[in-house]
Structures are given as structure tokens and as C-alpha cells.
Amino acid sequence: MNILQLIDEPWDSGITNYALTLSQAMMWHGHKVIVGGWPNKPPLLQAARLGIPTLPVNFTDVNVFNFRTAITREKIELVNAHGGQSHFWAYFCLRTTLSQIPIVRTRGDIRAPNANPANKHLYEKSALVICAAEFIRQGCIESLGLPDYKFVTIYQGIDTGFFKPGFSSDKIRREFKIEDGVSLVGIVGRLDPIKGHSNFIQAAKMIKDIFPKVKFLIVGKEENIKWKRLAETVYSLGLQDDIIYAGRREEIVEIMNACDIGVIASVGSEAISRAAMEWMACGKPVVATKVGCLPELVSDMQNGYLVDPGDHEAMAQRLYELLIDKNMCQRMGAKARRQMEERYTLDRFAVNTEHAYQKVLELK
After folding, report:
1. How confident is the model over 319-341, as pLDDT tens digits?
2. Which listed site, 61, 222, 246, 283, has its alpha carbon 20 to 30 Å from 3?
């Protein structure tokens, strides 16, 4: 297949990562893939670094002639739009002379689509809507009132050959001065109020009062909140020697392997939750909040625990249970790893998407 993936996100996001991971996986399966996106913005720059051919597109004012010419030149058979702007422009550019080329819309947004007549018409005319999680699919069906068969859930895959148990953690533990016999609990994600770092810190305080042999690691760049602000809470609780802020790091797989437990403390969002998948692929049990796709990934009391968003007491209780029972912690981590191997590999991601695309092409 010759496929054009359109990303109108101008930044690195869960939607961008889904589209680029899919593009790379489809290329490995022998398909021709081109990524269209904003010139000189992270999605297109990342695509180029991955060796994926790119097509610069200004989604504010698409040059229809150039867009159609590129579609014809590259013999594109299917266009997959990963955002509202790209969805509209794909339909606008292809609805006449190239109307035989099907448009697939992928939704990786926690918000349900707008049900106004114009948007509903756009979805009706699309060949298929791929949803990155089942709760997104259900939200689309309820909002748009379109038949169920128009929507399919395809979870993002993860490179389980890279994110895996067994990476040496000695260097990381030495760097952060984690002594032998001390457990390490980690949270990985940008510093943003929606990620629930404040609740993580409050849970850490409750645990330290009854389980002293544990440290807590926060990894992620400052975005909508500064570490200085979170550090004020850390110091007020007397946790300055127990909570480590590592900033943004590249060696995420080594950091996850150095931790005993992963935490997703988000109070919203998590349409895809790459971090949860990475923790689980590394064989770590996850204590996660019941938001977004997390209840679809984490099976409560099987490969981790689910708690209500904002409930730091429940989070502390579940973390404590894992900390005092190393065998249970390891069993849950092993189950998490098996789930990633069985359901969320890059190969399965590509195969599931291939099947969806092929059905679309057969029906055009």
C-alpha cells in the first residue's frame, strides 16, 4: 500500500507519537509511507530522523494543486488524517478529481468530536475512524450518532525489543545514590498539573512515614509547572532527601529498569499513555489512576493497581502493598510484560492497521 499519514499537530504529543510509530511499523511491513505535516515542526523533523519520507503541508492554507500533485506523483492509495485540520483538508482536496482515494481519520484525543452538521458530514464521508482506545471509540459513537462499524479501536504498539526487562540499573541507581535494599518508585512524564505530581508527592509522604527504605524519582521536562513550585511541597513535607527530580532524560528504559514500581498519577487526559505501556513492557507493575485509556491497559490487582484520580491515600496504600511484598510486585510486573508481548507489539499494531486499511480499500 502507498499511504499518506497527515499530522497537523505542530508539537511532539501522544497523537504525533501514535502516527509516527504507526508509520515506521507500516514501513517495516513493506508499505510505502509518507508523513505530511507542518514544515520544520517536531513531527516532520522526527519523521525525517526516522527515515520516513515527508511532505511539508501548511494546514492553515493548503495549496490544493500542490497537494493533489503530490498525491498523484506518489501514487497514494489511502490518506490517514490524525487531526481535525488534516481531516478537513484531505476531504476538501480529494472530494472531486481524487475522490476515489479513501480517507481514514485516526482519533487519539480524549475529547469527543464536535457533533455539528459540518463535522458529522466529514465523518460520514470518511471511510473509517480508527480510535486509539475503546473509550475514545465509544465517545465518538455517542457524540456523532453514526453506525458502530464506522469506528474501530486500534491500540498503539510499543517496541518490546527495546522496552524490556534486563537493562542494567546499576549506573542509574549509583547516580541517584540509591543504596542496596532501598526500593525506587518512579513517575515519568512532563511536569503539568494534569499529570498529578502533587498527588504523587503526597502519597510519597504517607509511605515514608511507615516504610523508610524507599526513594521516589520524578523524570520529565518542565512544561506547565516548574519544579521549583513542586519542590516547595517537597520541602514542606520534609521529603527533600527522599524525592529526586531528574529533569528530562533520554535513557528512559534504563531509568524504568532501575525502578521497582511505575506510577501514572494523572487526573485527566491519558488518551494513549505511552508511559504506562513503557513501564509495563519493562516488567514493572503500574499504580495508575482511572482516567483515559489506563483502565484498558492496567488490570486492577493483576498487572498493577487502579485508583481514583486525586486520591493520594489510595495511591499510597497500593504502593505500600507492592513495596512490602516483593514477590507480588515481581509477579505483577511479569504479567504486565506478558500483556505487552501478547497485545501491544509494533507488529500487532501494524497488522491490525493493515487489516483495517485493506477492508477500506476493498470497499472503495
Report:
1. 999 999 999 999 999 999 999 99
2. 61
